[in-house]
């Protein structure tokens, strides 16, 4: 019988895969079930509906615990797309800080272009729709969540969910992974450790294009929003004032 901690050997060459181990658990009347784990960065083993699955935290996609090739291939695909869409998102955020969102911008003084504003709004909406598609946005559900704005940028904001326990577990895992990544980048840039966005809690990214026109996203404002996931992590859309 397999012993706890026994290395599982691959089919190729008989060498153990890094971080892979097997163990057995008794299940009544001496029956045993063999499980295998493989520590793949960017994934977690969780139970969904009583079954063990491997969750890719960046996308929320699940694989069988031993489907290492599938999980690794998916991670490589995400990495390639992330590098492409990082530049695209930065460009989109710059465009969002134009006169198209002047009604929402209390941070900077925006110059209104001379051309027709309605035509600008239409082009901006088209670009925003293209970004949503390219980032593979998926709405989590029709449920609305309540949060508080903790930081505002030129074309985005960060919102702290007031009731994080209402967020599905798989989405919370993605949210934590996204925040951990931003915390690490923030610490490296500033040369010191301090809470990301000034809070210890995980926060949701909101693009101003997803905010109802006229709603000023300043610190302390409470809002309602729906959650989505995409290649970058977790965001909020259909953002309106909380009543």
Structure description:
- With 243 residues, this protein is an alpha+beta fold.
- Among the domains are: 43-81; 138-241, Nucleic acid-binding proteins (OB fold (Dihydrolipoamide Acetyltransferase, E2P), Beta Barrel), CATH 2.40.50.
- It contains 3 helices and 12 strands.
- It has helices at 68-96, 117-134, 169-190, and strands spanning 6-9, 16-26, 32-38, 43-48, 51-56, 62-63, 138-139, 145-152, 156-161, 204-207, 222-230, 233-241.
- 24% of the residues are buried.
- The model is unreliable at 1-37 and 97-114 (pLDDT under 50).
Quick one: CATH class of the domain at 138-241? Mainly Beta
Per the CATH scheme, the topology name of the domain at 138-241 is: OB fold (Dihydrolipoamide Acetyltransferase, E2P)
Task: Estimate the global geometry from the Cα principal axes.
Answer: globular
Please tell me the CATH architecture of the domain at 138-241 by its name.
Answer: Beta Barrel
Number of strands: 12
User: DSSP strand (E) fraction?
Assistant: 25-35%
Structural class estimated from helices and strands: alpha+beta
Total count of helical runs of at least 4 residues? 3
Which spans have pLDDT < 50 for at least 5 consecutive residues? 1-37, 97-114
Helix content: 25-40%
CATH superfamily of the domain at 138-241: Nucleic acid-binding proteins
Radius of gyration: 22 Å
The strand order across the widest sheet is 8-9-10-12-11
List keywords for this structure.
30% strand, three-stranded antiparallel beta sheet, 28% helix, 243 residues, alpha+beta, five-stranded mixed barrel, single chain, disordered N terminus, OB fold (Dihydrolipoamide Acetyltransferase, E2P), 3 helices
